[in-house]
């Protein structure tokens, strides 16, 4: 919304931005990143969604309206530029405890101890890329800071990564900078978190866990790379709780995940990264933002047909309001994720099913009643205005025909528009019959995958790093 | 005790300070456009603002949010890229943009 105001100001048109009371801090910090710290805001008391119309009307007339008029006709205060340190400037010298206190007090750490980012430590990381330290993958909103190789290395050091993880960290940040991902939405109120998936031989080379406890902390690569992403969002994109990170609840970062490629190879399935255009054996990183997840425990059956109903049930139950990304807010961008333990995937593959076959079968079954789908869009959330029926969306060509196959309110409709929109990854305890499902945040964290670029002399550098 | 000389963890700013558009002398006789992200009751709030602004400035006119499309979600990039052109075409003097909630 503020980005629209900024575009109007750039076009020479004065603006007033309507902001609910609880979001004024976010607006102030976002405006700085837009280069317009003095952008004019008109507050709306409380949160509009809980107010009766009469209360809303009174608030708008008594509080918002005078501010709107003032915003448009009164001169705005001048903006003041604040100088930042240069990248190699030493900002502080002190003990481990003192460094940690400084970083915490300045909002540069997450509250856990960080590894002090000395120039020597950063340079050790930089030995694992052929890119220049000043190379930028692009600006990251809301702070609009350049995602430089140097800043990736600094935050990698802080997160407790090993220097040889740098190529993976760079691929993650390249993904963040991809406009298709939508990093600017990372502070939205549902508080979704990004899951990193690592594919290719690099996962084993760097020691990523892809077996039992894959989503649990306790494995340096998985844990520190996951932490890195959250630190990077904080320090470079600029998402800070109580300011631009408006997660109503939120949670800690997701540890990074790897697919079990030896198991995939045994069953004849290609890695998940192939869905994004990579060849089997390519080193790649996928990032995607998920609002929540849940385990589907004890999937029973010796054939895919016996398993698919339960897997689909898990996928249908994990979603709800997120279906506004299937139809409504950003149609066709809902991309749920299903994790299968190797024993489940092997049983399915043994029957001759491909990953695509499983996606199709799950899509056919992962359905909810039409009335419920419509309630997630309208009456229960008000996220899609107009109270339109699924038939209306089909008639407007904003939904496929499968959503209007009859007028029966109890008819079942799919949770995503295409079978291919369901992602499937094979990981977790190889010999336990559990699966896991993630609900997805649509275009506010759309899946993107990037190649992991290894430096010249990777093998020798890796051997040397392992020996240290 | 070991000491550490540390560097700053943030990236260089890419956005330079941008001067805001000049403010208006009055809204009288001006054309105000509404931009909406199609969230959080803008469809109820903009009509209230329109009614109240018209009562205070009888000569003010309005451009509804439907002229532009949603400023959030699937349409954002295209809508924002076209704003300058649309403002010129519609002779817009001021904008009220919502809803940040």
Low-confidence runs of at least 5 consecutive residues of chain B: none
Give the N-to-C terminal Cα separation of chain B: 49 Å
Write down the Rg of chain A.
24 Å
Quaternary state reads: heterodimer
Tell me the radius of gyration of chain B. Answer: 20 Å
The number of distinct helices of chain A, counting runs of at least 4 residues, comes to 16
Query: Helical residue percent of chain A?
Result: 25-40%
SSE succession of chain B: EEHEHE
- SSE string of chain A, helices as H and strands as E: HEHEHEHHEEHHEHHEHEHEHHEHHEEEEH
Mind describing the biggest β-sheet of chain A?
7 strands, mixed
Molecular structure report:
The complex is a heterodimer of chains A (468) and B (101). Chain A has 468 residues and is an alpha/beta fold. Chain A folds into 3 domains: 2-73, no CATH class; 84-191 and 216-237 and 457-468, no CATH class; 193-209 and 238-451, no CATH class. Chain A is built from 16 helices and 14 strands. In chain A, the strands form 4 sheets. In chain A, strands 6, 7, 8, 9, 12, 13 and 14 form a 7-stranded mixed β-sheet that branches. In chain A, strands 1-2 form a two-stranded parallel ribbon. In chain A, strand 4 (136-140) and strand 5 form a beta hairpin. In chain A, helix 6 packs across helix 7 and helix 10 (261-267) packs parallel to helix 12. Chain A is flat and about 70 Å long. Chain A starts with a helix and ends with a helix. Chain B has 101 residues and is of the alpha/beta class. Chain B has a domain at 31-98. Chain B is 30% helix and 19% strand. Chain B has a 3-stranded parallel β-sheet with strand order 3-2-4, with helices on one face. The radius of gyration of chain B is 20 Å and the shape is elongated. The model of chain B has no long low-confidence stretch (mean pLDDT 94). Chains A and B meet through helix 1, strand 1, helix 2, strand 2 and helix 3 of A and strand 1, strand 2, helix 1, helix 2 and strand 4 of B. Strand 1 (15-20) of chain A pairs parallel with strand 4 of chain B, so a sheet runs across the interface.
């Amino acid at each position: 919304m503020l980005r629209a105001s900024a575009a109007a100001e750039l076009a020479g048109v004065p603006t007033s931005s309507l902001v609910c009371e609880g979001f004024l801090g976010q607006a102030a910090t976002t405006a700085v990143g837009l280069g317009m710290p003095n952008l004019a805001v008109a507050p709306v008391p409380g949160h509009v969604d809980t107010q009766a119309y009469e209360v809303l009307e009174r608030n708008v007339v008594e509080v918002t309206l005078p501010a709107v008029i003032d915003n448009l006709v009164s001169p705005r205060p001048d903006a003041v530029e604040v100088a930042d340190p240069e990248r190699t400037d030493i900002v502080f010298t002190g003990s481990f405890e003192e460094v940690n206190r400084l970083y915490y007090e300045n909002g540069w750490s997450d509250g856990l101890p960080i590894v002090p980012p000395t120039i020597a430590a950063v340079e050790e990381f930089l030995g694992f890329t052929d890119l220049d330290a000043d190379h930028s993958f692009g600006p990251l909103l809301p702070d609009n800071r350049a995602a430089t190789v140097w800043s990736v290395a600094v935050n990698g050091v802080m997160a407790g990564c090993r220097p040889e993880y740098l190529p993976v960290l760079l691929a993650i940040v390249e993904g963040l900078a991809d406009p298709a991902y939508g990093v600017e939405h990372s502070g939205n109120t549902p508080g979704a978190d990004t899951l990193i998936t690592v594919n290719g031989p690099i996962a084993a080379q760097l020691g990523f866990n892809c077996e039992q406890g894959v989503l649990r902390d306790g494995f340096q690569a998985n844990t520190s790379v996951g932490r890195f992403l959250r630190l990077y969002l904080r320090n470079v994109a600029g998402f800070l709780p109580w300011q631009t990170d408006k997660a109503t609840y939120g949670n800690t970062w997701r540890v990074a995940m790897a697919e079990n490629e030896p198991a995939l190879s045994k069953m004849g399935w290609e890695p998940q990264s192939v869905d994004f255009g990579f060849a089997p054996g390519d080193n790649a990183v996928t990032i995607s933002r998920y609002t929540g997840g849940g385990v589907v425990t004890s999937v029973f059956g010796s054939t895919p047909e016996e398993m698919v109903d339960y897997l689909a049930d898990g996928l249908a139950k994990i979603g709800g309001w997120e279906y506004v990304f299937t139809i409504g807010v950003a149609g066709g961008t809902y991309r749920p994720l299903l994790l299968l333990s190797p024993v489940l995937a092997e049983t399915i593959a043994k029957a001759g099913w491909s990953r695509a076959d499983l996606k199709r079968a799950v899509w056919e079954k992962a359905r909810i009643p039409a009335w419920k789908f419509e309630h997630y869009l309208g009456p229960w959330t008000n996220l899609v205005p107009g109270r339109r029926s699924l038939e209306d969306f089909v008639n407007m060509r904003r939904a496929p025909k499968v959503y209007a196959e009859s007028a029966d309110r109890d008819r079942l409709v799919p949770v995503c528009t295409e079978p291919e929109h369901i992602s499937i990854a094979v990981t977790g305890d190889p010999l336990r019959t559990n699966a896991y499902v993630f609900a997805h945040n649509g275009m506010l964290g759309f899946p993107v995958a990037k190649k992991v670029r290894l430096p010249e002399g990777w093998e020798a550098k890796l051997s040397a790093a392992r020996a240290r | 005790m070991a000491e550490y000389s540390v560097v700053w963890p943030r990236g260089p700013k890419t956005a330079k300070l941008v001067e805001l558009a000049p403010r208006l002398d009055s809204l009288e006789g001006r054309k105000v456009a509404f931009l909406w992200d199609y969230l959080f009751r803008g469809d109820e709030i903009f009509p209230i603002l329109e009614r109240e602004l018209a009562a205070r400035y009888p000569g003010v006119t309005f451009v509804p949010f439907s002229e532009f499309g949603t400023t959030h979600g699937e349409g954002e990039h295209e809508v924002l890229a076209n704003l300058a052109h649309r403002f010129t075409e519609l002779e817009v003097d001021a904008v009220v943009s919502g809803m940040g909630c």
